[in-house]
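Field log, afternoon session.

UNIT: design team B
ACTIVITY: writing a sequence onto a fixed backbone
BACKBONE:
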């Protein structure tokens, strides 16, 4: 494993990224109970198990395919090679809304750990969240934390370092396997969409493990990717299927 590891905190607005960042770094960045507080990326450094760890706090974002300035800051950083591990901070008190971004992050095929934050609220409501099962379905560790009370920090960083170590051999392996299909993706789309993803993948230059993400992004009409990879999508994939891809993510 590299000597210095960069861990990026990403998640929906207001899910507790900066609170978590402060809890690790002892920094006192502004935290307030409304979305859009963080507009720039912020860095801090800690040491753990003899590793130097650079922590990066990012602005909130609902997806990697959207275009506000804050969202671009997050997206550009998260897809860059600077990031060794992604900590996807999820507000467990509104879990469903958070998982769209989670699926996009998994498609990036980088090491991901889910920080299941706000577990105090979930417990107070008497909800019994099966994080173990969620972790099985998504194929990545899912660690319960309460950023505001500094609970779960050690376990989360441990999981993040472990993912970084394993990263040479990453392939998220979700559990819900149909025996005849080897699934190494977080989710599989309807077969005609998968076919188009494959066709687009064949047309883009090899970019590590990122080709599937790029192909899906292109088909989702991600403008930044479309500028970088000017393919004739109509010719390859026919009519636009971006809505269907988005909907299938939500359905999943
Ligand atoms: N109950 C509870 N509240 C929390 C927890 N973590 C953070 N909060 C609160 O959630 C609110 C938002 O926290 P921030 O850390 O600013 O969230 P953020 O994700 O950085 O927000 P943006 O930068 O705007 O995207 C604050 O009021 C925090 O005190 C937690 O584990 N439990
Ligand atoms: Mg913040």
């Amino acid at each position: 494993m590299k000597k210095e590891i960069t861990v990026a905190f990403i998640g929906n607005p207001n899910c507790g990224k900066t609170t978590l960042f402060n809890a690790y770094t002892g920094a006192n960045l502004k935290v307030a109970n409304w979305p859009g507080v963080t507009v720039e990326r912020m860095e801090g450094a800690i040491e753990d198990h003899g590793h130097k760890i650079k922590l990066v706090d990012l602005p909130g974002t609902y997806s990697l395919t959207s275009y506000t300035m804050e969202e671009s800051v997050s997206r550009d950083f998260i897809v860059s090679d600077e990031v060794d591990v992604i900590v996807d901070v999820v507000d467990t008190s509104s879990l469903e809304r958070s998982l769209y971004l989670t699926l996009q992050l998994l498609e990036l095929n980088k090491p991901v750990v889910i920080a299941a934050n706000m577990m105090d609220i979930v417990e107070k409501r008497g909800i019994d969240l099966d994080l173990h099962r969620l972790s099985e379905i998504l194929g990545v560790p899912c660690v319960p934390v309460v950023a505001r009370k500094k609970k779960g920090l050690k376990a989360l960083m441990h999981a993040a370092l472990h993912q970084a170590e394993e990263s040479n051999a990453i392939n998220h392996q979700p559990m819900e396997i149909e025996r005849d299909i080897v699934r190494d993706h977080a989710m599989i789309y309807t077969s005609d969409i998968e076919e188009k993803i494959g066709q687009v993948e064949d047309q883009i230059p090899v970019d590590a493990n990122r080709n599937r993400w790029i192909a899906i992004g292109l088909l989702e009409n991600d403008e930044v990717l479309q500028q970088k990879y000017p393919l004739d999508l109509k010719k390859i994939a026919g009519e636009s299927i971006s809505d269907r891809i988005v909907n299938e993510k939500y359905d999943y």
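LOG NOTE: The two ends are 34 Å apart (CA to CA).
NEXT ACTIVITY: expression trials, pending approval
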